[in-house]
User: Fold this.
Amino acid sequence: MTYKSVPRSDIEVKLDGLPVEIPAERKSLGGICSYLESVALHQQRILCSLAVDGAPINLTQPPDDAKPFASIEAETMGLGDVPSQLIKAALQQAASLRERVQSAVGVVLINERKHALELWWGLSLALKEPLLTLSLLPEAAYVAREGQASLSQMRKWQLEQLGTVIQDVNHACEWDNLEILSDALETRVLPWIERLHGSLNLWHETMLANARPAVI
Assistant:
C-alpha cells in the first residue's frame, strides 16, 4: 500500500527502537523510508525491516493503496548480518509460497479452467523468489562438508529441480480435468517447497548457532 501523507507531529518513527526526528518535508511513507535508509547507511548499516502501524511491509514492493498511518518502526542490520538476513528472507518467501500453493490446491478445483491456469502461471513466476534471494549470498556464507556440493552447484541443482517441477505442472495443465492440476500442485510443488524450507531452516539455525559466543 502507498500511505497518505500526514502531519509530521502525528507520526511516531523509531529506528532500532529509538525515536527519530523526521525532517518537515518528509511526510509520506516513501519520504520517511528514504530518510531512514540514509540514516542507516550513514551508520554503515542497512535497513532490513519496516512495520507500519505494527504491520510489516515488503521494502522491495511498496504498498499501493492509500491509507493513513500513525507509526513506523524500522530495524537495521550490519553488513556482517547480511547472509543470515538473506536466508531468513528466503525462509519467509518459502513459507508464503507454501500458503499460496496450499490455497491453490483447492481453489483451482472451483474455478473455470482459464482462471485456474492463470492462478498457476502466476504461482510459477513466484516460485523462484527464494532462489533469487539466495543467489545474493556470497560463497563464503556456505561451508560445505566433505563430499557435499558447493553453494554454486547447489544453486544449479535447485534451479534444475524447480524447472522440472514447473514442467510437470505445465503438463498437468494440458488436461481438461482440473483435478490433475490440483494433484500436481499437491504432489510436486508443495513437496519441493517443503524441502527447500526445511533445508533453509536448518541452514539458518546452524548459522545462528555458529554466530553465538562460546559459553565458558
